Amino acid sequence: MTAPRTLYDKIWDDHVVHQAEDGTCLLYIDRHLVHEVTSPQAFEGLRMTGRKVRAPEKTIAVPDHNVPTTLDRAKGIENEESRIQVEALDKNARDFGVNYYPVSDVRQGIVHIVGPEQGWTLPGMTVVCGDSHTATHGAFGSLAHGIGTSEVEHVLATQTLIQQKSKNMKVEITGSLRPGVTAKDITLSVIGATGTAGGTGYVIEYCGQAIRELSMEGRMTVCNMAIEGGARAGLIAPDEVTFAYVMGRPHAPKGAAWEAALAYWKTLFTDEGAHFDKVVVLKGEDIAPVVTWGTSPEDVLPITGTVPSPEDFTGGKVEAARRSLEYMGLTPGQKLSEIKIDTVFIGSCTNGRIEDLRAAAAILKGKKIVPGMRAMVVPGSGLVRAQAEEEGLAQIFIDAGFEWRLAGCSMCLAMNPDQLTPGERCAATSNRNFEGRQGRGGRTHLLSPAMAAAAAVTGHLTDVRELMTENA
Amino acid sequence: MDKFTTITGIAAPMPLVNIDTDMIIPKQFLKTIQRSGLGKNLFDEMRFTQDGAEIADFVLNKPSYRQAEIIVAGDNFGCGSSREHAPWALLDFGIRCVISTSFADIFFNNCFKNGILPIVMPQEVVDVLMQDAERGGNARMTIDLENQTVTTSDGQSFGFDVDPFRKHCLINGLDDIGLTLEKASSIDSFESKTKGLRPWV
Fold it and tell me: Taking the model in full, what pTM does it have?
């Protein structure tokens, strides 16, 4: 009888190709997702050494970071370097024969939205991508994490990765969430509690009633930001919600293969008594709608709070907080709900899925954004965009005064023309509020799609629950 | 990859915590399709004004630190994205070693693939090294990977841990892919085994 194992232990054990005496493992990779920014040097490395892609059928490429999201994007990419990078992906995908969704394909979108949507991401798999938000796919109970370009080349050439096993961490969210509180508030609150280095060296398994009650979209939001807490990956054990989402997707197994897969997937849970090296428990009912005030995702507070003072912190965080407040143009003691917003960005691999757009549209229905506000919705994929149009969400956004864009990473990291100008303050549903992240000098407040919609309507950071009462 | 054995060089102090990859190399420089040439954009938004003028009090712009080969940094260095452009930019500038109390996981891995040694030290040691780094260009720190020691300019020596496999690769400048391809038969047999067990993959 084997010792009780965690979900992470089980997936790990099923993918070890070779283990060296010092514990270094060669881990097999089931799915390799590729985008245009972190792959050109890797493909070039293959060319220089005369190597091939070992498993092109397990490799999926899609351009997302550089692509324009304006409606006229068929005319091409204006910025020469961006265009060259996307063209390089076109050529590399063709030359090496990997699965590819070009800009012109309706299925194109952010790589972490396309993978699950097309059924490439399945429970129990190992999934990597040259992108830190690969953690998203952990929502399916697959071991998924970001890698650097050298490792992209390694996976292309060998379909494996040299890895040391991480430690196990459990994050349990007990009970249910209160109205107006979402997956984004869970994941930000966890980072607020553990810090951005709190997960370093760990793979997190999220569990508890509040996690089980989330949709797949919500679970992806939670796992997406595991990296922001420093963890290598975030995981959620697959269940009926997972299976229902996966079933019928283009690359999901069918027929007898489905039954066999399902039987295996049902073994993917943490055994009773399995050991976790670190445990964090939050009560679902204690989680409030939150926003970030600083330039690190750990700078999280409930919307009902006030801007902290550097003296509230200790160690190196005192200087970091002072620097953050100066960069963000905020004063200690200021109410978070009084912070004026110039721009609202709804989208990204964190919150660019259909449920996110529904949540924002529910707040915006019949309302207008404040005059002078710049507001945009960037769906996570062409299919999300199409579905939102069918459901009438697009019209709600447009009527409210939002720009209704095409799919891509857009203003989450501002590699395409969607950028903030110095001092411009943005309520963003993305994942990073780092200095300069959304454009040099730009000021980012991270929040949920519903909270972003609320800010668009009032012109300042707003407790979405107040608008919900109003609607009720 | 360049071998890493021993370096003796200037260490730049960067006590700020959570120095993220967007600070190390902002996204506008990720559009390159090459690995080289990013050193001029290292820490771009901290190092230069919007018009490209140097910001005089940024550490790497100070005359004593322009030739720095080591950075002593605050906690959680390299957090954020997986961009290998961060270690590429550091290397291209001339940085071969970063010392901190902790590193973000992906950045840490990426360093080893590029001949950069990230060293984790306890806070009290980082404090001593930070002080030594603050002494400027006349103080040289020595990193000896073979013996796993960091020695300050005044001769205080501290041991550090490093994964034996990664140490071996760094010292010999080895290419991971070449090493893994030696195990091609193990990969083949893993694939045929899982084809039976999990055919849907």
Answer: 0.96
